[in-house]
Amino acid sequence: MRAFMDHCARATGRVFPDPAAFHDFSVADYRAFWRLFLDWSGVRCDGSPDVVCTDDRVEHAVFFPNLRLNYAENLLSPAAGPDDATTAIVSCNETGETRSLTRGELRDRVGSLRQALGRIGVAPGAVVAALARNRAETVIACLASTGQGALWSSLSPDLGSDSLLSRFGQLGPTVLFVDAAHVHHGATKSVTDRIRALAEGIASIRHVVTLDDSVIEGLPGRVAQHPLSALLSTPAPAGLPWPRLPFNHPLFVLFSSGTTGAPKCLVHGHGGTLLEHLKEHRLHGGLGPADTLYFHTSCGWMMWNWQLSALASGATIVLYDGSVSFPEALALPALVDRLGVTVFGTSPAYIQFLRDAGAEPNGRLAFARLRAIQSTGSILYDAQYDWIKDHIKHVPVQSISGGSDIIGCFVLGHPLLPVYRGESQSVSLALDVRALTDRGRERVGRGELVCLNPFPSRPVGLFGDADGRRFHDAYFAANAGMWTHGDAIELTERGGARILGRTDGTLKVNGVRIGPAEIYSIVLGLPGIAGAMAIEQTAPAEPGGSRLVLLIVPAAGTNLDRPMTLAIKRELSRRASPNHVPAVIAQVSSLPVTHNGKLSERAAADAINGRPVRNIAALENPECLAAIAGHPALRLARPSDGAAA
Amino acid sequence: MSDTALRQLVIDWLDDNYHFGEAATVIGDDDRSFLKNGVLDSLGFVKLILHLETTLGVQIERKRLTPGTFDSLRSIVAHVSALPSYRGVPA
Prior knowledge:
Number of domains of chain B: 1
Mean pLDDT of chain A: 94
Radius of gyration of chain A: 24 Å
Low-confidence stretches of chain A: 640-645
Low-confidence stretches of chain B: none
Number of strands of chain B: 0
Strand content of chain B: under 5%
Distance between the termini of chain B: 19 Å
Strand content of chain A: 15-25%
Distance between the termini of chain A: 40 Å
Helix content of chain A: 25-40%
CATH superfamily of chain B: ACP-like
Mean pLDDT of chain B: 92
CATH architecture of the domain at 100-244 in chain A: 3-Layer(aba) Sandwich
Number of helices of chain A: 20
CATH class of chain B: Mainly Alpha
Structural class of chain A: alpha/beta
CATH class of the domain at 100-244 in chain A: Alpha Beta
Number of strands of chain A: 33
Radius of gyration of chain B: 12 Å
Oligomer: heterodimer
Helix content of chain B: 40-55%
CATH topology of the domain at 100-244 in chain A: Rossmann fold
CATH architecture of chain B: Orthogonal Bundle
Largest sheet of chain B: none
């Protein structure tokens, strides 16, 4: 950060007496900021960077329209230039097996796979999907596919078939990378049924590549199957050229659940993703070739893509495939210690698990190289900062928050600023983040998180949204001329921030965003159910600070009994994911609806969380809220004092 | 096993949170290891302990838990029912 600040001071002739002044410059003159950062970071590209941003309107702006680059090329040959013998990836699993790939090995394998993919038609315009474990093979597949100019989308094998089809089914992939099984908590679980369901349900799939070299029986006749090792068997010629693609060429599709309808397919571009991640890693995180980054994630979450990009900063990345708590509570801390991780990425839910388990990581482990801990997914409470300091290591704790929507962070760490409990240290450079209140767009205060200026990692658009109408409705309709994110934020006097929760009606439970529509599409198809409503209840004792509640109106003559309750949970776990399983299912006689017949999750959520119900006059049946709020099943149990022992 | 209500409490919790009606099948017999046989992972054990503490009003010392004392249905029931603060499963 300091080096780049000095670079900008020299280039502009300005003086930046402190980080706040530099942040102000980065926002007020964001074009100069991004041009300087592009040059300073040494991104490999060609074309002209002279036009930095075509429009001051965040919805319509296009960054670097005349620049061409390749995301994968920049990860494999970063400006920081670690040599080919340097470790790029360390891949681990529950058994303790550890495999490393050097930069040279990674580049060679990507080259071989790029060649092979080219022969089966993977080129700009192609869509590649992956249902895969978090291992080196998935990274090779991703970099080879995107290196060829294809659009990449990955999900993890714990998703059920309904969730997989509702996502990949929108994209029309021609190639599907798969692992035939995944291992969780010592048990190997087959994924082949879901692979067959995808191959049968998505007519565009022509090729299945098995990352674990397995053979999948029963695929449709139109699908050719390839073990990965066969595609890697022919070395690529030395100096295989990288296609240089337009800055905004589609790179990744990430999924974001909304309140209704299928999940949104967010398309992110090569240049925006690369530049934003380089900024977050090198400036806010201080990452470089001496670092080893381990962010616990799966390849279905944007943190997988975010961590992958750290290769472009010259860092080594660690991939862990398996349960966080197998074979013991200290499995991940032991990994951090053993591999010499310098930056460990985790979540409040995981920190709470360690605390509830009575774990004492620093009683057994030295964490000699650990210099920072990052946390995301949900609010990191003040007490958790203290617990990390007392039980892991006294290092900066960076609470970061953003979303798949921007494949990055709105608020995150800062190497030149102190850490205050409960706060993210700073707003992301060059992003004009404000709290929108009745008084306007505040730099300090609590309100709706909005961003006023263009930023490169704004999605290119939504997949299949040719006229941009859905993109506009999702992020720009609520407040004209600004990006509305769907989070409530508090911006503090000292430049820090706290994310306070969702404002858009989506649920965030255990750090995972859940769209109620996905729950309804399964539950309302089950026998004996006339109505359903999924809401989030604040529950401080739960990991992430909340729990998922499902209200059920049974069909006439039916009651919600234990077999029905278990059946609902079983179907949601199997067809959606374990994260979609409610903590509580409660029978009610009616659900709140508006005068135009629309269910009001917001009213029910206000009621069960003890808040005044907003806009109660809009409800047809406000009298049902008292019964919902007073439902005995929704009473929160007080955690025992023994939990802190 | 002496405390059938406590045993059923554990099975019901496993059904409600992990196995959705199939807990008895997954458990197999009362002496099978939960950890080794995919009944519960370490994360789940922590949640079970919190549930037992909250529901039964007991305190379970984490440091006294070992695979021998808290990793099968029988050993979990035996450990909890031997706690001085244990007063049975509430109605």
